[in-house]
Protein: Cytochrome P450
Organism: Amycolatopsis dendrobii
Amino acid sequence: MSDEETFPMARAPRCPFDPAPGLTTRPPVSRVRLWDGSEPWLITRHADVRAVLADPRVSADVAQPGFPHTNAISKARDARMKTLMQMDPPEHTAQRRILAPEFTVRKMAALRPRIQRLADDLLDGMLAGPNPADLVEAFAAPLPSLVIRELLGVPCADRDFFQSVARTLVMDDPDPTRAVTASQELNAYLEGLVATEAAEPGLLSKLPVEQREAMSPRSIAVLGQLLLVAGHDTTAAMIALGTAVLLTHPEQFSDVSGPAEELLRYLSLTHTEARRANRDPLVFPDPGRFDIRRSARHHLAFGYGRHLCLGAPLARVELEVAYATLRRRVPTLTLAAPLDRLEFKENAIFYSVRELPVTWASTLTTLPPGSSAKNRRTPHDSSVSG
């Protein structure tokens, strides 16, 4: 096979928001070569991907012979810890049934006021600081970290450790040692919280009471780690990369006020880990064109079938709040560096920008109507509304 058939394929430097050209020009079903020399099938057509994801004969179990690990980090981590994502029924069904009631659309919508306060507080800090600023550090990374920390019930005093480990878990270092070590440290930490009942009100403290006979502290800790990785870095990457897209389409930035479905379709930032098909012209006319007004609800950014992303309702709320708050609070926001000068995470599990330098007109920093710094909680307040 040629280099063009090695997965993941290189993206075109001039089109950093697009999938690799090799993904969109190859046959709907073809062989590709992975890092370890294995040659699994690659499926790119929307209808075929849905069919495969919904087929009960297709296994997600990483212990199955020939499972296509997309990089050394994934293989090393999966060998030590099996999460909900790597399970088949009935094990998968049992664990998902435990978590599903905690991530309903209604419950996640109830978190919107708290997420809004966190977003406003973070922007208060960014707007009061240096201009230009790095949006990743000031807003995109800390917002989902604060939300998932509160949701799990991780003590506020441990937030720096929590966020540091989260970054290490999904790094694009070719050496898996650091990621595996971070995974083990986080699992031991979460297991300790559960076993000692040291967690603040949240999923880690709630599940042991309700599921004490069904799950061990270690099993709950593994779930917590999955929720951290899936609920933190994916959303942080989407906020940063999505904002970069919006700022390169300024006429559409002003229209951001509702669902983020077109950004989810257009970016599909998990290209190196979970294969999606959101650029299929049979489903999305002119798929390479970004149009915030497009009806793209049937994208596959969250997967499909029994492994449909459990945290999709939370991610949607966070992204809607993040993009709309940026537009409302900082309507003059622009990139502070040319797009071709940005550094992208080419080999990370979740594709995004390492830094996103932004600037704004310093006179447009007013708070939203009815809001003031003195009557809003700080980002370090660990309570969760709803």
Observations:
- Strands lie at 29-31, 41-43, 133-134, 334-335, 357-359.
- The radius of gyration is 21 Å.
